[in-house]
Every structure is written in C-alpha cells, then in structure tokens.
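ok so I'm stuck.
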Amino acid sequence: MDRRPATGARAARAALPLLCLLAPACATEVVVEDGLNPVIVTALDRVYDQAAAETGVPVDLLKAIGYVETRWQMVQAEEEHEGILPTVGLMGVRPEVLARGATLAGVGAEDLAFDATSNIRAAAHLLAEEARYYGVTADDHLVQWVPVVEAYSRITDDEARAYYIGDDVYRVLRDGAEERTEGGELIASLRPNKDLAPSSAAPTQKSDDYAPAIWRPSPNQSARPSGSVPTMVIIHTCEGGYAGCWSWLRNTSSGVSAHYVVNESGSEISQLVLESRRAYHIGATYDCNRNGGVQCGKNGQGSNNFTIGIEHAGYGSQASWSNGLIESSAKLVCDITRGHNIPRDRNHIVGHGQLQPWNRSDPGPNWPWSHYLDRVRAHCGTANPPPNPPPGTDPPPPPPSQIVIDSNNANNNAAVARIELTGSWTSASSVPGYYGTGYWQGATSQTSAPATFWFYLPAAQTRTVDAWWTAGTNRLTSATFIAYNASGTEVGRVAKDQTRLGGQWNQLGTWSFTPGWNKVVLSRWAATGKVVIADAVRVR
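replied:
not stuck anymore, here's the structure
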C-alpha cells in the first residue's frame, strides 16, 4: 500500500471536507426545522448525505461507523503490530477489502487513503454490497442492519465483535455524537436515535491489578526473565478502534499483546496481561541513547522484559485526544508507577516511537505529553506545585498577583509558568512590539498543533487573562484562545484579530480556574495561508 505523505492534489483532496468548514466558498449551513430546532449542516455532513443517497445505506449508520473508527478524522494510519495492516482513512476501511471498495465506488485504491469523499463512498458501497447479501434494504430499521455492521467490522472474536456492534456503533447511533476542531468549528454531528434500546452488557471479570479494568486475558505473554521487574511504561496507539485492538492482541495467531488497552473516550480499559508478566508490545532492544541516557544497564535487552505497555484506541496521526482518554490513562499510569515505584517523568513514561523510531511513531506528534504527565502526577498527589521550603525556614510567599507566561521559557518562573509548543513553530523577532525577547509564529493548518501557556494556581481562583501579540497583515483575524482548568475542562474561549492591537495586553476573558496547572491554548486550526502569534499571556 502507498503510504507516501499526501502532497499536491492528493493533499488538497484529503483536506477538502474539513477545509470546507472554514472556507467562505463552502461555509457551514444552518437548516431550521419547524422553525424551532436549528440543525447545523457541515461539508462533511453533506458528503455523508450524498453517499447515503447513492448507496441506500442509512446516513446515520454511515456516520456512526465513521465516528467509531476515527472520530471523523482523515487519519493516515501506520502499522502498529506485525502481521496486521492498518485500516485506511476516515471510515477505517479494512485493507483486505480496500480494492473491492474502490472498484465499487469507481475510484482509485490510492484515493481511499487521501480523499475523504472517496473513502466514505467506498465504505458505503461495501456496506451496500453486504446489505444485498443479507437482504437488508434502506427502508429497514437500523436494527436490521446489525449483520451488515458485523460483516464490515471483520472482527473474528465473538466478544469483540459484539462489543463493536452494541457498545460502539449502536451506542453512538442511540446517543448521538458531534466532533469539533480544536478551534471549536463543527466537523460533523449525529442526532440521537432514541428508539434504539441500550445494548445488554455481558458479564465481565475485573482485573486483579487495576480494579477499574476488565480482564480479557491474552495467551501472548510469558514470565519476565529472572530478576526483571517493570521499570518503565510504554505509551502506544492501536492504529484502530478499541474492540478490534484488544481482539487482535489476544488472538493466538497474532503473537502480540499489551498489558492494557484504553478506549477512545476513556470510559473503559481492558487488561490483557498481568503487570508481573511479559507482554509482547514493543519489537525493540533497549538503547538508552534514545531515552536520555536512562537505565543504560539494560542496553541490548528486549524492551518487553522490563516495560508495561498501554495501547490507546486511535491513531498517532489524529489531531487530538479526548480528555476522557487522557484522564483515564493518566489514572492507570499513576497506579502502575505507584505499584512498581517507577518515576513519573518522560524517561520512564515514554512513547513507542521513541524507543523504536525506525518503523513506529506512536503515540504521534499530538499526544499532549506535558499535560499528560501533569495529570499522572496529579492523580498520584505529586502535581509539580511550587517547592516548599525546608522546615524551620520562612513560609513560602503568597502566589503572585499576576503571572506572565512568556514565549521564552528562560524568562518564566518555572514554578508557576511555562510555554509548551506542539508541532512546527518559528522563532521570530522581526516585527517590533513583542513582549520579552521575541515570539513564536505558527502557520495555520487543519492540525492540532497549538501553543499552550501553562500557569500554576495553589487554590481555586477567578482570574482575568490577557494576551500579547505583534500585529501584521499576514496574521489570522480569528486566532482562538481556549482556557482550561487543571482537570482539562474548558472554561472559556475567545477569537481575537491579530492583524491589529499589537504590542499591548488585550483582554481575553475572566474565568474560574482550579488548583494546579491550568492552561490557555492558542489554536492555529484554520484554513492555510495565515499565521498566529504566540508571544505572551498574563493571568491577573
């Protein structure tokens, strides 16, 4: 399969459904039903409508499958486990039916990986073909489409297949869903089908290691070598959905496993291998040069010998991760590190791609490492507060009346302020009027690669937040600042015109924050061609 990055025309096709959310030529529509219930219709909604009309597959079913597979993102999946090719594109088209779907839709097989419209149409045609086989028609109730969804999943494990249908696809159909960009723009939505009954939960056995987890044992495991104990946690992404992930990891023929799998929302965790045992989740011998010179005595050992592996439903290329997944995973890692006395830092909680960089990159560039580690520490009660003085010395001073987070961390008080950049930003000082020693500029793009201004508060407080930038004609007129409290809950957002009012403090809003590390995120999710400026944020 061609896994080249999308460039030129292919890149334009891949971006079109999301780009249309922002471009004036194909702006979001608002349809008013009965004059009472306005329904927002996006460009991606229209693509789904057209595919449903073309194939006779219910549009809600198409949307539910797309949401379960990728949260309506046109991901570029990579291989996560030897022997299983990744699914393709927004609808998670299985590689074994890729060519068939392309033929049915009348498009090139390559288009399914880079063009969201072709991907949705191919999936719709595959579902329609299965519907014809099972004698299901467009007029049948959604419940009648269950065997079609079963066939589309291509999951052979009975429990996992039932989970995919009842707890994934039909739960989304019943409850509805919506997905927004980092900047708040609606990608697509699905209204609830309230006539669908809740799925009946199968009895489940709980984990002995981590009480909230469900025990789904994998045969692909063994005893750790004599004297080996867990000293590191490895963060993975499944490169696919939750049910298919744990299904494959406990399939005897796969030969791979992980200790845990966290679902997309964080509402469920499966444990497949006991922490005391060795799971087969990373295919790399350890080299401390890839990990800051830590634990060099383990060089040359198989990394599985002394690590605990956690898979996360989703893709390394996806734009963002749900707060629920991050919180649930952070609680789990807190429990693991507490139980095995593992330090809570980036050299002991590491990404798969860090230790195996030649053919793995998960959990990807948009995994929020700084926030994630803060949440791990917070759940363990070690959340990086300002240091306490030794006994017998003067008490610490009260928190400053205002905190300034500069674009240069060398200018920040690390106890209460820091900036974190995700993705590619350029350091600049060419436009006068900047705060401190310069600023960062980032090109707009449909990617989650923000600048994050972190600030620490010892207690719950209501604070006013201001931002500073340099103005210019190439700036975004609607640069979105989003404020979150220390638990990751959004408390407010505002869009600011960075073509004007440069070289001064501009008020963003007054919001209520919680104890710990709160943050203000500057998004650059917008149509390409502009830049956003990350210079400084003040909390007063």
